[in-house]
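Supplementary Note 3. Input sequence used for the single-chain structure prediction.
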Amino acid sequence: MKKMLLTLLSLTLITVLAACGANNGGNKASNAAASSAPAAGASAAPSAEPVTLVVGASPIPHAEILKAIAPQLEAQGIKLEIKEFTDYVQPNVQLAEGQLDANFFQHKPYLDDQNQKNGWNLTSVAAVHVEPFGAYSKKIKSIDELKDGAKVAIPNDATNGGRALILLAKNGLITLKDPNNIASTKSDITENKKNLKIIELEAANLPRQLDEVDLALINANYALEAGLVPTKDALFIESGDSPYANLLVARPDDKEKDAIKKLAAALTSPEAKKFIEDKYQGSIIPAF
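The predicted structure, written as discrete structure tokens, is reproduced below.
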């Protein structure tokens, strides 16, 4: 009997010691895990939230270019929200009012004119591309066929209207007081040998008026939207050294912000240049 009790006590002691060893090992693992985990009630360090930039743009080519460079910016923690406009007024209005962080649709003469007229101080951040201005027609194949008294449509905004008149003058259809003055108007025409009837229309409507006029001078973005290829369909077109580079524009207090700088860098990157050259085949020309 004593031997049996002795045996039972020995077995119990062995079991207790084994359990203690297992518990000690388990405690070490738990302690290690606990030391690497956040304390109760504490939260892990949050990952940086992406910055969202709301950018106003004409659908073609501006929004297309922005969409092409969006992945570059996303990799840098910047999300592009592209708001498309079919007019030249609201992108600046909404930028001035703070509804946009930047816009991308206009050249410097137009920006300067709008700042002066509206008391804004919107500023250029980067020059991105040039859209050669062209003359289009569904009725004639060359300017030699343009008849006396022909209807010629041009944009009705100050700078693009002047730009159209300069292009007409360079191609010998009219003469201007100053053939380089972007602010030229119809009153500055000094000679009009063919008695052209120059009609001023909203720039966005010009492609739709091609059936109604003999010639229309159209901004490249609206020409492209209408399915026209400037380098193929224009009867005459601005040369590649056009000074009317399209700009990324922001409010002056935002110009130096990191996200705007990164947007400007992406729009003038080798990837953006390749996209413009491959996509538009000379109808749109990089300005950098």
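The radius of gyration is 34 Å. The first helix runs from residue 2 to 36.
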